[in-house]
Design a protein that fits this description.
mainly alpha, Chromosomal Replication Initiator Protein Dnaa, Chain: A, elongated
Length: about 90
């Protein structure tokens, strides 16, 4: 290697969906990794996951693709989006 050659590391690439998720996680004062961790936390991580699901779905991802990104099943994503309802909560006429 000659003294004139300088090796510059390649910039770290982040997928657009990951940038969206990182911003949402920061807004909820958590990290992407904590937000998608398994568990049923009822605090900022749940709210962050729901917002991530809605944002990624709005970007054109399917519920299956969104589920893979946030480490949840596609039916959970549909629940987050409000496409599914709880039949026990329906009022019987």
């Amino acid at each position: 290697m000659t003294p004139e050659m300088v090796i510059v590391p390649a910039p770290k690439y982040r997928a657009p969906w990951r940038i969206i998720c990182d911003r949402i996680a920061r807004r909820h004062q958590t990290t992407y990794e904590r937000a998608i961790a398994k568990g049923k936390r009822r605090n900022a991580t749940l709210n962050a996951r729901v917002e991530m699901a809605r944002a990624l779905y709005a970007e054109g991802m399917s519920s299956t693709m969104v589920g893979r990104r946030i480490n949840r099943d596609h039916t959970t994503v549909l629940w987050y989006l409000g496409h599914l309802t709880n039949p026990r909560r329906r009022k019987i006429p």
